[in-house]
Amino acid sequence: MSSLAPCFCGSGLVYQACCGVYHAGEAQPNCAEALMRARYSAFVIRNENYLLSTWAVITRPNVLDLSGDRTVWQKLEIISTQLGQEGDSEGWVEFKAHYQRDSASHLMHERSYFQHTSGRWHYVDGDVRFLKQAPSEKTGKNAPCTCGSGKKFKRCCGR
Asked: What residues contact 116, with CB distance under 8 A and at least 6 apart?
């Protein structure tokens, strides 16, 4: 990966100056949203160790094997955050993650819960609002969005 490659999380920064510093252990995310972005980027590059190390002990799986995962993560959209800043003990981040699997486009909408313990943010769990296949090209951008927002696809998830 080029040292000037844009970060997968969509921050606009280069990976090495954004999520790359967290993945390398050079820094810790200072808020729940930064951890959400770093975890998304870790899924993109299949960094299982980072994902496990940032998962709360009470909900962490024993094993995480992404080696056979055919998911190609394409875009992260942060919808909202609640608390999760420096000085908070918990926070929530709502997001949409666009991905492709088996040549079909999909969208996952989740509200994730984070806790700040032992001086670090940890992912606890998430409420998946929906996990749907995105509309095909035949559906058209003027069709209602599959996320149920009531907006046209082109004004919502199709951006």
From this structure: 32, 88, 89, 90, 91, 122
Query: Could you give the 3-state DSSP secondary structure of residue 38?
Result: helix
For the domain that residue 72 is a member of, what is the CATH number? Answer: 3.10.450.50
Is residue 79 within 8 Å of 94, Cβ to Cβ? yes
**Half-sphere exposure in the Cβ direction for 48 (13 Å, CA):** 9
Of the spans 26-40, 93-107, 125-139, which averages the highest pLDDT?
Answer: 26-40
Q: Does residue 2 sit within a domain?
A: no
pTM of the predicted structure, to 2 decimals:
0.83
**Under 8 Å between Cβ of 35 and 119:** no
The burial of 32, by beta-carbon neighbours within 10 Å (0-12 exposed, 13-18 middle, 19 or more buried), is given as buried
Rounded to 5 degrees, what angle do the CA atoms 142, 145, 150 make?
100
